[in-house]
Amino acid sequence: MTTLLPRILRALEQFHAARPWDHNAHYHRWILRRLPGRFDRALDVGSGSGDFSRLLASRAGAVHGIDVDPTIVDRARELTDPAQVTFTVKDASKEVPPGPYDVITCVAAIHHMPFGDALTCFRQELAPGGTLVVVGVYRPQSRSDYLIDAVAVPANVLMAWIKNKGRKVPRPASMTAPARPATMTFADIVRDAHRALPGARLHRRLFWRYTLVWHHHQ
């Protein structure tokens, strides 16, 4: 058994290296269902290669995507009509382009920032009646965390096979940005989120993610 587990882990690693799929993009349509059909201004924090920013542009009057990585911002500009989205190199942990915004989204980026400070900044730039949606990662700690992780492992293999039709594929541009492991547990995230955003709704999700939705009520 002690030798079997490392072999299984290596096999899984090789399988996913050959058939990568973007766990963050899996939640893009879910996010859109939480947003109005049309809105004026949107800010996409940690926009990466711009995949979700372009989806926002189908509903928004103007979209601003920001990311701290100049290389991935250049890639986003290459892939995007500049009339659709404006991309800027900016460290959201220090400042964001001034709002107000009707929609602010942050997908798998907030763990790169001081969490509570980032949420406070987003709240300040969100227009009354606006919506904030965060998809983030957390450090597993509780029994329920590990139970969800256990379910995610076979689901991850199945999704990789379905999305890639069983074929080996190159790594998508959206998965080339530098990654950082999560340091906050889900319990810590819930506590700090409710301090910054009273009434925020948070849920653990499959594929090592959680979601946060908050409406700025007038």
Main CATH class of the domain at 25-138 and 180-215: Alpha Beta
Which range best describes the helical content: under 10%, 10-25%, 25-40%, 40-55%, 55-70% or over 70%? 25-40%
What share of the residues does DSSP label as strand, in percent?
15-25%
Instruction: Give the full name of the CATH homologous superfamily of the domain at 25-138 and 180-215.
Output: Vaccinia Virus protein VP39
Could you tell me how far the N terminus lies from the C terminus, measured between alpha carbons in angstroms? 58 Å
Question: Averaging pLDDT over every residue, what do you get?
Answer: 83
Write down the secondary-structure element order: HHEHEHEEHEHHEE
Q: What is the count of helical runs? A: 7
State the CATH architecture of the domain at 25-138 and 180-215.
3-Layer(aba) Sandwich
**Number of strand elements:** 7
**Main sheet, how many strands, which sense, barrel?**
7 strands, mixed
Predict the CATH topology of the domain at 25-138 and 180-215. Rossmann fold
| Broad shape | globular
> Which segments are poorly predicted (pLDDT under 50) over 5 or more consecutive residues?
none
Find the structural class using helix and strand composition: alpha/beta
| Rounded Rg | 18 Å
**Spatial strand arrangement across the major sheet:** 3-2-1-4-5-7-6
Task: Jot down its keywords.
218 residues, alpha/beta, Rossmann fold, 7 helices
How would you portray this structure in words?
The mean pLDDT is 83. The chain has 7 helices and 7 strands, in the order H-H-E-H-E-H-E-E-H-E-H-H-E-E. It has helices spanning 4-18, 28-32, 51-57, 70-79, 115-125, 143-163, 186-196, and strands spanning 39-45, 60-67, 85-89, 101-107, 126-136, 201-205, 209-215. It is an alpha/beta fold and 218 residues long. Strands 3-2-1-4-5-7-6 form a 7-stranded mixed beta sheet, sandwiched between helices. The chain is globular and about 50 Å long. The protein has a domain at 25-138 and 180-215: Vaccinia Virus protein VP39 (Rossmann fold), CATH 3.40.50. Helix 5 runs parallel beside helix 7.
